[in-house]
Amino acid sequence: MAQRFARVDVDFPHKRTANALMQKFGPGGPLVFLYLILRSKDGVVPGTFTYSSEAVGWEKLGLDGVDMPFTLDEFFRFTGRLKQTSRTPVGRQTNVQLTRYADWQKDAKRYEEAAKKARTRGKTTGDTRGTRPGTRQGRKRGPSSTSISTPKPPSRNGTPDNACPLCGTRGYPKPWTAEQLAEHLAHGHNIIDGQEVAA
Question: What range defines the domain where residue 61 resides?
């Protein structure tokens, strides 16, 4: 079953499209665009809106009793110039396609997946930097100044288990033989396997 809601950016009122619609048509511009997004969800193809006349178009949008100071033709001509819609007349019907509808759905899905990953890591989007999972430091008082790092085992941080931690000399099996030890000490190192060795 199809979802009964449409995805809309929460920052829509502050975006270029909403501002341009507000300047051109007043408050009715962004309102009609939001209604168009909602009605496009139910289109035969999601992101499309079809109407046969001005009256039918306003009725489908749910704005048939509202006196708008512009026509749907003027509205769709302007949103077309903004690259938000494309109109195609088919017989007596007009098909309107929201050009960015698929991108909006992908953006919303990407955001939901990122939020889900953050939740599985024990973090929220407001608690992502420098705080321990499960604490309130990031949510109430800002990020913590403490950082947590997990030390890696010697074999994974660039020094193999059978190498000197100071010079990285490798290839000796454990325990080292007397000849191998002498060779290593000739390099001037007196620490082997984390223990000090007399020179």
Answer: 12-101
